[in-house]
Write a structure and sequence with these properties.
Blueprint lengths: L3 H11 L2 H14 L4 H13 L3 H14 L4 H12 L10 H12 L7 E5 L6 H4 L7 E7 L2 E6 L3 E5 L2 H13 L2 E10 L2 E10 L13 H31 L1
Antiparallel strand pairs: 1-6, 2-3, 2-5, 3-4, 5-6
Helix pairs in contact: 1-2, 2-3, 3-4, 4-5
């Protein structure tokens, strides 16, 4: 059975911030000095646009651990942000809708990917949902950078190698942070330009399409073997 802590982390990774709030509140109810849960709760509040709640929660962390680096860093980041203007009567809802619209998926053109060989938590926890990222091709891999210079991780080889071929052929892509916490970062990649020579080639292949492609190749091999066997039988008959 999945623990509440694992559920809280999973909700953060998938961007289900409302559930993340509820589960972390449950953890804090069980243990009011659970610093990890308080930090996760504060981060979820900040993503949802609930800046006041995020500040108050980070301050609770500092009352328990006055030198907690995650709380200090994120409290400063929140303080540096411009005050959210409530133009539609609900800033929290407006912020959530904007982020949701940013991550609309299109088959073959977008992909949600968890990076490998990620940077230290001090770097990852400084990222925020919706932050623009740079994709840089180096040594047959695609490195992902924030602010154009800060290394945060690498695309898995099965995705990176395919995109490198497409980028060299003229395709262009954008990438954004979807969620980031400690040793995990999930990004959203979107194809923004497709080269004419690749007009019928999707940038990303779903699991179902991979299975279908495997089945086609498998059937083609079996048919070739059957044809070879039939030809061999005909030669023996002669």
């Amino acid at each position: 059975m999945t623990s509440l802590k694992d559920q809280a982390i999973q909700n953060a990774l998938t961007g289900d911030w409302q559930k993340a709030v509820a589960i972390n509140k449950s953890l804090i109810k069980e243990n009011p000095v659970d610093i990890d849960a308080l930090n996760r709760l504060a981060f979820a509040f900040s993503i949802l646009g609930r800046v006041k709640d995020a500040k108050n929660t980070y301050k609770k962390v500092l009352r328990i651990d006055s030198l907690n680096p995650l709380a200090l860093r994120n409290l400063k980041r929140i303080g540096d942000l411009k005050k959210i203007k409530n133009d539609v009567g609900n800033a929290s809802l407006s912020s959530s809708m904007r982020l949701t619209n940013m991550f609309i998926e299109e088959q073959g053109k977008t992909k949600i990917v968890e990076l490998v060989n990620v940077a230290q938590p001090s770097v990852i926890n400084n990222l925020h949902t919706g932050q623009f990222l740079t994709l840089s091709v180096k040594r047959l891999k695609i490195f992902v950078l924030s602010n154009g210079i800060q290394y945060i991780g690498v695309l898995p080889d099965n995705i990176g190698k395919r995109l490198i071929k497409f980028i060299k052929a003229g395709n262009q892509y954008e990438a954004y942070v979807k969620s980031a916490f400690d040793h995990h970062i999930i990004i959203f990649i979107k194809e923004i330009k497709r080269a004419s020579k690749l007009k019928d080639q999707p940038s990303f292949i779903s699991s179902a399409e991979k299975i279908l492609d495997f089945d086609k190749k498998f059937n083609r091999v079996k048919n070739n073997e059957r044809e070879d066997h039939e030809e061999s039988s005909e030669d023996e008959d002669e």
